[in-house]
Amino acid sequence: MLYYNLMTKILRNINPYRENTMTATKKFDSKLLKDATFYPDTKVLDVTFKTNNEIYRYAGVPEKVYEGLVHAESKGGYFLKNIRDTYKFTKVSNDTTK
Prior knowledge:
about 100 residues; 3 helices
């Protein structure tokens, strides 16, 4: 539990904007995912879920994994298989602007 709490604090404090470089936010035609934004300098992936507009931040995601998500035929399937249980994450917020 201590490890989880520490990782949650670290992930919430990651500033993906620090280098001011990011890929464009990719909107998805998916039942699960609304969009994703990747920050290559920090290897941070922000994912917005379609069902509740919640944004989750995933740390340590390689660019090739992000590219796999973008090009996957099933975005939700790719996310569930390759990202969800593989990378540490934290809930960032509810996005009410998208």
